[in-house]
Amino acid sequence: KKASIGVTGLAVMGRNLARNLARHGHTVALHNRSEQRTRDLVEQFGDEGDFIPAYSAQEFVDALERPRQIVIMVKAGAPTDAVIDEFAPLLEKGDVIVDAGNAHFADTRRREAALRERGLHFVGTGVSGGEEGALHGPSIMPGGSKESYESLGPLFEDISAKVDGEPCCTHIGPDGAGHFVKMVHNGIEYADMQLIAESFDLLRGALGHSPAQIADVFRTWNTGRLDSYLIEITAEVLAHTDAATGKPFVDIVTDQAEQKGTGRWTVQTALDLGVPVSGIAEAVFARSLSGSADLRAASRGLPGPSRAPLTGAAAESFADDVERALYASKIVAYAQGFNQIQAGGAEFGWDIDLGAVAKIWRGGCIIRAKFLDDVSAAFAAEPGLPTLLTSGDFRKAVEDAQDSWRSVVATAVRLGIPAPGFSTALAYYDGLRAERLPAALVQGQRDFFGAHTYRRVDREGSFHTAWATSDRPESPA
Ligand code: 6PG
Predict the structure, then answer these.
(1) Pathway, per UniProt (predicted)?
(2) DSSP H or E run through 48
(3) Ligand 1 center to residue 366 CA distance, Å?
(4) Which residues are tagged catalytic?
């Protein structure tokens, strides 16, 4: 018997994907650079399904049914290229190589084009949900050709998470579309995490609540519209006490957030596309600021306001205000992220169904949330929606939230509690809805110092004012 799919790279993510496939009744060929991992998997989990261990690239390829489907689960970058170079020469026309790691979509586009020339399908696929997700049902975002999805789709849909009986897996679009969407997923993940962290900091700083009390607040929020995996685990982390010291766990962890790079890629790409993903950018920068140890040490004595906590009615309503501010800021972060997917789709010629993306993010992935039901419904109702913010329910939610949102940002500013995520989201909202922006003045400045020209509100064409001439005549540029 041959295997319907193979997995090479059996570190925890690869191993769990392989086990998930086997548990769903698929015969899985296994391969790893060092043989021990392959042996360990078969030894420990061999009874979970049908595995065919292979101890050479040729053996692995020979174990597979045609078209062969090989999932690569190794580190992004050079290790991925090395594995592709090892297997591609052994494959035949129509075979499929899947890169399920967190690759940069530009690498995926390059690899796809190169392998297409050789008659092979290359599928860059996003897989979200961490180790647990990989084993019990991740959210899967495959790119690549339509044809490759015909054989791969049923397998991936089978092992993906399900919400309302629907698989959290869909063909995103050609070449790098899957990895692009996974990248933006991670960018949104950064924004979500930052907003939640700011909420914690505000509740602590403005109310003097303990982490355990704030855990309860998050638990309550998790029963409402903020119901999501990240809110749920936040409550768990905040409620946890360090065994060694008896202190809240969150107080014994070094306050320097690390990153592997997908959030940064999201922002770099957004800059190239000209899409203002300020919420994601602030989240990435907040991590960088936290990690700037020397800079922070040098700045520690800088003066700030006195931090008298809130009292009276302001204190009483504060947690609810933060909930509203968090919800509104979250809507902004997702609106920005979806705009980036829209822009990426237009730039690279992918036809991405935003409603379908929101739908497969409802389960399995790190940003899974009840909220995504509404996001998916909003795009299904109006596929060309310019921004989530104008869609019925979200527009209403932001309208209801805005007084609280403004007051929370004002409180943060007054108490000197950094809330870049909340502030930028609100500034973005106010920027979008503004009748006139001071960008007109920026255009004037550019024309003044560099003759960069401007357009007028009342006439077609570009113009330049001769600023150095005393009567400042204007001429068409
Ligand atoms: C997922 C996660 C996963 C990874 C994060 C961590 O969707 O399952 O996003 O891909 O754990 O990318 O990212 P940082 O290390 O950059 O925080």
Answers:
(1) Carbohydrate degradation; pentose phosphate pathway; D-ribulose 5-phosphate from D-glucose 6-phosphate (oxidative stage): step 3/3
(2) none
(3) 8
(4) 182, 189
Nearest CA to 231 out of 191, 193, 277, 278 is that of: 193
0.80 exceeded by pTM: yes
Residue with tokens 């010629």: 349
CA distance 322 to 198: 9
Please state the φ and ψ torsions of residue 207, each to the nearest 5 degrees. Answer: -115, -15
Place of tokens 């906590």: 309
The end-to-end CA distance of the chain, in Å, is 73
Q: Is the CB of 291 under 6 A from ligand 1?
A: no
| Residue pLDDT, tens place only, 394-417 | 999 999 999 999 999 999 999 999
CA of 186 to the centre of ligand 1 (A): 6
Q: How many residues would you count in the chain?
A: 477
DSSP state of 140: E
Using CA of residue 414, residue 412, residue 266, residue 440, what is the dihedral sign? Answer: negative
The C-alpha atoms of residue 470 and residue 188 are separated, in whole angstroms, by 51
Neighbours of 37 (CB within 10 A): 17
DSSP annotation of 438: T
β-sheet bridge partners, residue 455: 462
Task: Evaluate: CB of 129 within 6 angstroms of ligand 1.
Answer: yes
Distance CA 72, CA 83 (A): 8
Q: Helices 105-117 & 78-87, crossing angle to 10 degrees?
A: 20
Asked if 59 contacts 174 with a C-beta cutoff of 8 angstroms, the reply is no
What is the DSSP track for 397-426? HHHHHHHHHHHHHHHHHHHT---HHHHHHH
- Asked if 437 and 431 touch (Cβ cutoff 8 Å), the reply is yes
Q: What is the ipTM of this complex?
A: 0.96
**What's the gap in Å between 125 CA and the centre of ligand 1?**
14
3-state secondary structure of 428: helix
Segment holding 337, helix H or strand E:
helix 312-348
